[in-house]
Amino acid sequence: MHPHLKPGPLPLSMQLAPDNQLNHFLTVEGLPHQLLHDIMDRAEQFVTLPAKQQKKAPLLRGKTVMNLFFENSTRTRVTFEIAAQRLGADVINLDIRTSSTAKGETLLDTVRNLEAMNADMFVVRHEHAGTAQFIARYAAPHISVLNAGDGRHAHPTQAMLDMFTIRQKKGAFEPLKVAIVGDVLHSRVARSQIHALTTLLTGEVRVIGPKTLIPANIERMGVKVFHDMDEGLRDTDVVIMLRLQRERMAGALLPSEREFAKLYGLNEQRLELTKPDAIVMHPGPINRGVEIDTEVADGVRSVILEQVTNGIAVRMAVMAMIMGGSAA
Amino acid sequence: MKNLIIQQARVLDPHSRTDQIANVYIQDGIIVAIGGQSTTLENFHDAEKVNASGLWLMPGAIDLAAWLREPGLDHKATLASETRAAAASGVTTLCYQPEPATSIDNSAAVNLIRKINQGLQLAKIEVIGNMTFKLEGKRLCNIGGLRRVGCVGVTNAWQPFESLNIMRRAMEYASTHDLTVFMYPLEHGLAAGGVMHEGEVSTRLGLPAIPAAAETVAVAQIIALMELTGSRVHFCRLSAAGSVRLIRQAKRDGLAVTADVAAHQLYLTERNVLDFDPLCHVRPPLRAQADRDALLQGLSDGSIDAICSDHQPHELDAKLAPFQQTEPGISALETLVPLTLRLAEEGVLPLLQALRKITFNPARIIGSPAGCIAIGAPADLVLLKPDVLWDFTLETMLSQGKNTPFAGWSFHGQVQRTFLAGHTVYQAQEAH
After folding, report:
1. Of residues B203, B206, B403, nearest to A151 (C-beta)
2. pTM of the predicted structure, to 2 decimals
3. Is residue A81 part of a domain?
């Protein structure tokens, strides 16, 4: 047995080199406070730098980024693609569901084959938790892995673009009360946001939802749990609405879309409970009229489209920090 | 065969609570006398003498659950590979568990396993048969026939019954034939595709989870059906504190119930899964610290009768995938005796009580005369060197499956020699 192929733990420590340089970006959990700010600082540079100038500093020229999407997501894939291209990398998109794994190839076989095509970075999305960590552990040492969402586990770039948006709007995290609302149980975004918010020493992090959508012992992650939306929204500075998957709207977890919208949907009336300058966020795509009303989604407090724009800058920042060193 | 005297060992017999230096006399594979230096028996003048001074002599371990894979899943393990591992680690009887690919539906399946093992003779294999045809939970197996061919019990393993009515009838029918039913308590509807314990760690990792109640609900149902059917039930692989409470109460109520726990449940918890370690993907899942404490308490107060390995050897690929896609189970045969001895060393259980959980108690559960050092018992015995500290490593393990989270652990007490019906089936190489 090749020692490299021994099954075993997938330690998070592998995402950081001893000097805190990022090797991979798999989860926000365990990353130092300063590093999260470094990512946001770097993203700030990309936001303020005009697009033309960015193209003059192609930090990833000659590098090959492969988007490995085992689960469909055009939007997320496109933002990674744009980020990599702006940095000068060659980007290859692979829709794995329809190719190799359907033919009985193991995930490791797929990884080995793509390695052989001189990839430098894999951007991985997969329906199973821990897949990015698994690939990072077993891929060749020169390959970096960027997690674009694994099961219900983590979606670290989404969380970091949310943090970046909050920082832009609010400055410091310490005085903030942030509420995350909806289907926390199935949400990798919520988990990564919680890790990021607690690492950034946010004053209070709340999760709001019915018991069926709040996972066991989540308070151990450093959040306060609310089942009453009005109570949970009171005096918050940031409201993050989560997407409710269509297939979960009627069944064992929720009686109906209508009841959910009534009890946990964000409308203008409820928004009154938050602080007057509170912002509203949503990772998209939005179910209008379910978790969020159109008036709120398109209202003055909504920063939803800024999140999308920031997504590209944050993904550029993370890619640049992993592959291009820390100098801008 | 030549008569045998094992001389001056520290004889540890959990049944008679013997712990003394003695000679053990073996004739035709049976223990015929146990005595001091002065004991002289007529037929033993030219017997082979084994000087066991400084060593411990214990009954060979009886493992209530080994998934031996052959025939059907030979790429994971074979009877040859696994009985060799058993002999070297002090296990003399293995209870073969049926699984969908290695179904024990009829006497031919039992005889085939016997026939393969007859050519090996490194460990006894007792077979647990199917409760339902192909373990599909739909119609009863020929349980009477399985009984006649010597199955020590029947089970539906981890496969669900189509309905509680089928479960009830299968339990009833097995009890007609005076067979113990080995029940794996799991309410499949509550497990809902989960792969680890529902709690703090599953929430953190975002892995689909199995609540402890998926087990305790099933335990309660089965106890109610025992009362209805009068059947004798052995509960396999308890993992939850609530299950231990229910079994304790059932015993107080006088039901014919026994229970076991897998050795790894006594050392590992959900926290061992924190790094998505597929080697800690087991069924039932590793649970919370409070569950582990309750399992240890259950062993101590007798609610849990036996410790087994729940040995599940796998090929490399079965564990080389993201956690959810890996197959559950640990290649655990070779750590059964070491982990049990360690319970005594750590003061969790007195030595004889710990040994009883892997010898006399499981023997009683399967109706085997082994599991004790007594006159008339088969000479399935193990000599241990108590003070050696040794490392358990992948390189030295003999099972074909190398899927263990215990590689690198150090243990006290190493098997020196294993006897099966008086024959030496394993002998450690002398260190020079």
Report:
1. B206
2. 0.95
3. yes
Together in a domain, A240 and A165: yes
What tens digit of pLDDT does each residue of B258-298 get? 999 999 999 999 999 999 999 999 999 999 999 999 999 99
Interface test with B, best of A71, A217, A248 (most B CBs within 10 A): A217
B320 touches chain A (CB under 8 A): yes
Nearest to B283 by CA among B154, B221, B197, B213: B197
Q: Which residues on chain A are in Cβ contact (under 8 Å) with B282?
A: none
Chain B hits for A129, Cβ within 8 Å: 205-207, 276, 322-324
The secondary element (H helix, E strand) that includes residue A108 is helix A107-115
Q: Does A153 touch chain B (CB under 8 A)?
A: yes
Residue A55 pLDDT exceeds 90: no
Interface check for A220 against chain B (CB to CB < 8 A): the answer is: yes
B39 falls in which pLDDT band (50, 70, 90)? Answer: low
Hey, what are A134's tokens?
């698994």
Residue A328 has pLDDT above 80, yes or no: no
Residue A252 banded pLDDT, cuts 50, 70, 90:
confident
Domain B4-57+378-389+409-427: give its CATH superfamily.
Urease, subunit C, domain 1 (2.30.40.10)
User: Which secondary-structure segment (H or E) carries B154?
Assistant: strand B153-155
* Cβ of residue A218 closer than 8 Å to a chain B Cβ: yes
For chain A, say whether B251 makes contact (Cβ under 8 Å): no
pLDDT tens-digit profile of B129-178?
A: 999 999 999 999 999 999 999 999 999 999 999 999 999 999 999 999 99
pLDDT for the residue A103: 59
- Would strands B181-183 and A204-208 be described as parallel, antiparallel, or unpaired? unpaired
B317 labelled catalytic: no
Q: How many domains does chain A have?
A: 2
AA letter at A1: M
Restricting to B residues 130-149, those with a Cβ less than 8 Å away from any Cβ of A are none
Mean pLDDT confidence for B104-122 = 96
A226: left (phi over 0), alpha (psi -120 to 50) or beta: beta
Cα→Cα distances B343→A157, B296, B364, Å: 46, 9, 22
Min Cα distance B199 → chain A (Å) is 5
Architecture of domain B60-366: Alpha-Beta Barrel (3.20)
Read off the pLDDT of residues B57-95 as tens digits, 9 standing for 90 and up: 999 999 999 999 999 999 999 999 999 999 999 999 999
Cα A325 to Cα B207: distance, rounded to the nearest angstrom? 33
When scoring B287, B319, B320 by the number of chain A Cβ atoms within 10 A, the one with the most, hence best to mutate, is B320
Place of tokens 């990309």: A46
Which among B323, B327, B331 is the top mutation candidate for probing chain A, defined by the most A β-carbons within 10 Å of its own β-carbon?
Answer: B323
| 3-class DSSP assignment, residue B379 | coil
Asked, for residue A328, whether it belongs to a domain, the answer is no
- Is the minimum CB–CB distance between B204 and chain A shorter than 8 Å? yes
Q: Do B198 and A216 touch (CB under 8 A)?
A: yes
pLDDT of amino acid A326: 43
In terms of Cβ atoms closer than 10 Å to its own Cβ (0-12, 13-18, 19+), residue A23 is middle
Residues A126 and A238 in one domain: no
Inter-chain CB proximity A216 and B209 less than 8 Å: yes
